[in-house]
Amino acid sequence: MLDATALAAMGEPHGTVVVADRQTSGIGRHGHTWHSEQDAGLYVSIILRLKLPPADLPVLTMALGLAVQSAVNDFAGVSADLRWPNDVMVNEKKLAGILVQSHGEAQIAGIGINVNHKSFPADIDDIATSLLMETGRKHSKVDLLDHLRTTMLPYVHILTDRGKKEIFRLFTMRSSYVIGKQVEVDLGTRVIRGDTAGLDENGFLLVSTPHGRETVMAGGVRPAVGS
């Protein structure tokens, strides 16, 4: 994302895509690291120039999640799920992640997709997957990039042209995590457990717990143990 940020500052236009074979400082939400194996993943940053308030950056993240889900499903024939707010999953393991940051008048969206990883470090081996591991065959990152390019901007423009309610509707329809999922959410200071109950008007996740309904604005969402 650093190269894309520098290019955005130089005036590169909306829709410019920067691709890397490897990330040396890959990051996720809340400063988490992203495992980046040389030549195994697709690591993309896209420069966007949208008139969006900062409060709508999470909605843009969801729109790009829909784009990535559509691209990998069409490309690899998998059935990817969306885990609120920014993860693309296959068989309850993380396949891809999206991170959006605002820089001046531009937004920089970083997308990492595990494509041809054969294995992962021990600390994430049970929660991460790749298209190779799911389909049993190696995939062309160039072809996947072509699929991603055809889906990214159309989903972004759904947000700008039709509004965030349409993104919420699509995300709810295409994610098993939004309604009726037994989850636990790490809020940093505490963990809540309950059933997901949809998205509120801002796109935050609602969770019904034994103590009442909670609005999750940020946090690590996982299936509840034993669910």
Description:
This protein is an alpha+beta fold and 227 residues long. It has helices spanning 2-9, 57-76, 131-135, 141-162, 164-174; strands at 17-20, 41-48, 81-83, 87-90, 93-103, 106-114, 179-186, 191-199, 205-209, 212-216, 220-223. It has a 6-stranded antiparallel sheet, sandwiched between helices. A 5-stranded antiparallel sheet has the order 10-9-8-7-11, with no helix packed on it. The termini are far apart.
Blueprint of the fold:
Elements: H1 2-9, E1 17-20, E2 41-48, H2 57-76, E3 81-83, E4 87-90, E5 93-103, E6 106-114, H3 131-135, H4 141-162, H5 164-174, E7 179-186, E8 191-199, E9 205-209, E10 212-216, E11 220-223
Antiparallel strand pairs: 1-2, 2-6, 3-4, 4-5, 5-6, 7-8, 7-11, 8-9, 9-10
Helix pairs in contact: 2-4, 2-5, 4-5
Mean pLDDT: 91
How large is the share of residues in beta strands? 25-35%
Distance between the termini: 36 Å
Radius of gyration: 17 Å
CATH architecture of the largest domain: 2-Layer Sandwich
User: What ranges have pLDDT less than 50 throughout 5 or more consecutive residues?
Assistant: 24-34
Number of helices: 5
Count of structural domains = 2
The helix/strand order is: HEEHEEEEHHHEEEEE
Tell me about the biggest sheet? 6 strands, antiparallel
Helix content: 25-40%
Shape label: globular
Strand order of the largest sheet: 1-2-6-5-4-3
CATH class of the largest domain: Alpha Beta
Label the structural class. alpha+beta
Instruction: Write out the CATH superfamily name of the largest domain.
Output: Bira Bifunctional Protein, Domain 2
